[in-house]
Design goal:
67 residues; alpha+beta; 3-stranded antiparallel sheet
């Protein structure tokens, strides 16, 4: 199992958590999504994770990943 972390500065509330979790959870290979509001960080765990697909899912949820 692999793990990828993303810094998402706009995370601020439960709505953000739900929106990101829903979109990222639909990506193939994702087993777990953890959205930490205080750290403004998304952690994704799973097998054969596709970074581009995960980034697209976060974007689809309406959030930008910090560079």
């Amino acid at each position: 199992m692999s793990e990828i972390h993303y810094s998402v500065p706009a995370i601020s509330c439960g709505h953000c958590v739900n929106a990101i979790s829903a979109e990222v959870g639909r990506v193939a290979g994702v087993d777990e999504v953890n959205v930490d509001v205080s750290a403004k960080r998304v952690t994704v765990r799973g097998n054969a994770l596709d970074d581009a697909a995960l980034r697209a899912a976060i974007d689809e949820a309406g959030y930008d990943i910090a560079s």
